[in-house]
Structure formats: C-alpha cells, structure tokens
Q: What sequence folds into this?
C-alpha cells in the first residue's frame, strides 16, 4: 500500500473535457499522473464509484464547496479519482456541477487503484474491483498526507479533513 513520502504511481488516468479550451480537446484525454503532478500541490480524493450515494451526496460536493479554501491553502488542483470510464466521470461532473473546480479522473481499468494498493473488492455487490475511499495531499508527485477510510466509512477523506491538513 502506498505510504506518505512515496511518489504516486506513474499511470494514466482519463478525463472527459466538456468544453474545448486551453489546448484541451473534447473527449477522453489521457492524464499522465507524473507529468500532471509535477511542480503542483494536488488534493486528491478517491472513491468507489460515480453516482453512488455517499460519493454523490457528500464526498464530491464537499470538495466543490471548499474549492476557494483549498486554493487559498496553496492547492493547485483538486482531483476526484474513481474506477469508472471517462464518459461516466464526465456525466457525473455535469451532474455534480464540478466545472473547473474538481477534475473528475477515470481509472477505467483500476490501474491507479491497484498501483496504490488501495483497491476495494465489491464483486459480491455487483460492482467489481473498485477504489477504496481515501484522500491524499500530493506535492510535486509525492504523497504528504494520506487518509484511508475503514470499510463502509466516511470519516477522514472528506474535504474538511484534507483542507485542515493542507493549511497546516
């Protein structure tokens, strides 16, 4: 399992960009985690799945609401990572009204989740292999803070907890 002080896995996530601009093309675009975190501070949170109850009602909205506070704390970007495809993540971004506040990144084949060692097997519930619920602060590609939820919990990966850690 990934630990504080380690680099995040060098994988490629996918992002659906709704509006063309800033050199980005519409459609699923690869996001190289090594390049995308270089020289930046990223508030990254991962969750089991798009459109799921806790994720939609609490997890994503908390980060959207705290966007300005994260920026003031020195965070360059907020990432939401889930084992879904880029089209689902794009639709969920519209539904959650994330706009440019939270990058909704797809880990379609769970490569990032597997590489972090933070997978969650929900096969018996019809969801297959997913990401565990967690948050981390990443500075220049290195994990500086890591908050991993216990099974079925939503207590330490919320926006308020990671924001307090970003301010510290």
A:
């Amino acid at each position: 399992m990934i630990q504080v002080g380690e680099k995040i896995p060098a994988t490629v996530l996918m992002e659906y960009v709704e509006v063309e601009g800033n050199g980005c093309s519409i459609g699923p675009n690869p996001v190289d985690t090594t390049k995308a975190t270089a020289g930046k501070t990223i508030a990254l949170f991962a969750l089991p799945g798009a459109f799921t109850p806790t994720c939609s009602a609490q997890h994503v909205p908390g980060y959207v609401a705290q966007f300005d506070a994260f920026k003031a704390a020195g965070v360059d970007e907020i990432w939401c990572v889930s084992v879904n495809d880029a089209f689902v993540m794009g639709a969920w971004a519209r539904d959650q009204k994330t706009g440019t506040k939270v990058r909704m990144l797809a880990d379609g084949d769970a490569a990032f989740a597997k590489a972090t060692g933070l997978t969650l097997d929900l096969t018996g519930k019809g969801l297959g292999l997913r990401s565990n619920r967690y948050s981390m602060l990443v500075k220049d590609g290195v994990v500086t803070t890591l908050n991993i939820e216990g099974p079925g919990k939503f207590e330490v990966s919320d926006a308020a907890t990671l924001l307090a850690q970003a301010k510290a």
In short: The chain has six helices and nine strands. Residues 53-65 form the longest helix (13 residues).
